Amino acid sequence: MEDESAPERASVGPIRACVHDTVTAYFQHLDGQASHDLHRMVIEQAEAPLLEVVMRECAGNQTRAAAALGINRGTLRKKLRQYGLED
Questions:
Q1: Which parts of the sequence belong to the DNA binding HTH domain (predicted)?
Q2: Which residue range forms the structural domain that includes residue 83?
Q3: Distance (Å, rounded) from C-alpha 76 to C-alpha 38?
Q4: Is pTM, for the whole model, over 0.90?
Q5: In angstroms, rounded to a whole number, what is the distance separating the alpha carbons of residues 52 and 56?
Q6: How many angstroms separate the CA atoms of 71 and 68, rounded?
Q7: SS3 content of the chain, % helix, strand, coil (to 5)
Q8: Within 13 Å, how many C-alpha atoms sit on residue 49's CB side?
Q9: Which of 45, 51, 86, 47 lies closest to 68, judged by CA?
Q10: What CA–CA distance (Å, rounded) separates 1 from 86?
Q11: Can you tell me the distance from the alpha carbon of 45 to that of 49, in angstroms, rounded to the nearest whole number?
Q12: Does 43 share its domain with 82?
């Protein structure tokens, strides 16, 4: 295991557990029916609120938000448009 700081470990665990629990519940609700495009659905459901919160925490500064997300500013702008989150 990599040597991570305590805040990083604390923030990763709950998110992973939340996704795990949500996907487990999703399959239980399917009641045997096939699922389709699960990866896309999970990414979209997680990415939009992630972008909203990061943009709020960065006071709308796209350069800071992109740095916090580890993506370039152009990618951030594209994703903000994709989810209808542009100013």
A1: 43-83
A2: 36-87
A3: 23
A4: no
A5: 6
A6: 8
A7: 70, 0, 30
A8: 5
A9: 51
A10: 38
A11: 7
A12: yes
